[in-house]
Amino acid sequence: MKAWLTQHGAALRDALRRLAAAALNTALSLFVIGIALTLPAAGWLLLDNAQQAARNASGVQQISVFMTQDADRKAVAEIESRLRAAAPGKWRFVPREEALQRLQGSAGMAEVVASLPRNPLPDAFAIEPADTAPEAMAALAKTIAGWPKVAHVQLDAAWAKRFDALLRIGRLAVGLIGAVFAAALVAVTFNTIRLQILAQGAEIEVARLIGASDAWIRRPFSYFGALQGGLGGALACLLVFIGSALLAPAIGELAELYGAEFGLRGPTPGFAVLLVAGGALLGWLGAQCSVAISLRQR
Fold it and tell me: What was the pLDDT predicted at 5?
């Protein structure tokens, strides 16, 4: 075990030395890898924010349950009990007084509300289903509509289907772009490792003559590719974070103008770790392919 750790430690130090020895080439390679990973990462983050914005928008991916006018607190408590048992996701009770206050606060509605002899709005529930698939939301709305003291269940099923279709197209497009740039990253690492092997051809031949195995020869190049890909992933995460920070104030101001509560979310720690790990894996794959082909040719 100690010998294995010593060999891998030596290979890692050798990979770091090669990265530092050609600083300009390393910086250019990291820039290319970073850009290649930034575009699909930013696209995926954009889709995630679009889905979150849709959830925060009124009536989008939300089921509104309106009670009858004669519904009392006992009826409301029964609906709450049924919702807890069904566990549809997050839900919130909106009393008629709160709904009237919101309506009164809307532009141009204060005088209209003041002229009403009584509160015409019913108690309601706003439900955000855990399963936002259009079919699941429609089935849940149909079930709730049969509950006692429920006057109306509102769900824009057509809009939900359109939005779900747009998200699927967006994910497919980002996936295809990610696949193309992942192949480009593997190709960049492949070419970089190939040039290194050509430059160190004499050293590799001498090492093989004195009994070095292919695994021993491959190890430093594998670490080099993984480190290069991982650093490129870290650079991509930094670029996405900077872009999110620059866009967040403008998007927040735009959302405020439309009366929405939405803030642009940047990359989470889990997203960053996944991006760095993905870059390292692709770099390692490119190095493995390059070394395997080069050693086979020799």
Answer: 67
